[in-house]
Amino acid sequence: MSEFINVTVTKAANVYFDGLVTSRTLTFPDGSRKTLGIMQPGEFEFGTGAAEIMEILSGELDVQLPGEEQWRPIQGGESFEVPANARFSVRVHSLTDYCCAFLD
């Protein structure tokens, strides 16, 4: 899906890591949420409340998911899932455009 229709966009940006990661929240008529964002190159650790699916639209990164010792390469067109109440790390190699779906 290349576009979302009939959504509410929260104007205020979610800003993390001194602006190296930013996103905007979309709320759908059924109450579900997604964020659309950009990650600059760097290494970042995130925490989840709800389970998430991270869809990488463009860019390259490595992800280390909970319980995994190895880093997994991810590039534009791929996605990965993160469980609820977990921490995961990413090493972003190039400007990365992403869409995060919350599975609450």
Automatic annotation (TrEMBL):
Origin: domain of life: Bacteria
Classification via SUPFAM superfamilies: RmlC-like cupins
**Keyword set for this entry?**
Glycosyltransferase, Transferase
Report whether Glycosyltransferase shows up as a keyword of the record. Answer: yes
List the GO cellular component terms.
cytosol
Q: Which CDD domains match?
A: cupin_PpnP-like
User: In the UniProt record, does the keyword Amino-acid biosynthesis occur?
Assistant: no
Recorded catalytic activity of this chain's protein: guanosine + phosphate = alpha-D-ribose 1-phosphate + guanine; cytidine + phosphate = cytosine + alpha-D-ribose 1-phosphate; a purine D-ribonucleoside + phosphate = a purine nucleobase + alpha-D-ribose 1-phosphate; xanthosine + phosphate = alpha-D-ribose 1-phosphate + xanthine
One of the Pfam families matching this protein, by short name = Ppnp
As one GO molecular function, the record gives: guanosine phosphorylase activity
Assigned EC number: 2.4.2.1, 2.4.2.2
Identify the enzyme class: transferase
From the UniProt record, list the coiled-coil ranges: none
Q: What is the stated purpose of this protein?
A: Catalyzes the phosphorolysis of diverse nucleosides, yielding D-ribose 1-phosphate and the respective free bases. Can use uridine, adenosine, guanosine, cytidine, thymidine, inosine and xanthosine as substrates. Also catalyzes the reverse reactions.
- Family classification: Belongs to the nucleoside phosphorylase PpnP family.
Q: What is this protein called?
A: Pyrimidine/purine nucleoside phosphorylase
- Read off the lineage from the record: Bacteria, Pseudomonadati, Pseudomonadota, Gammaproteobacteria, Chromatiales
**Name of the coding gene:** ppnP
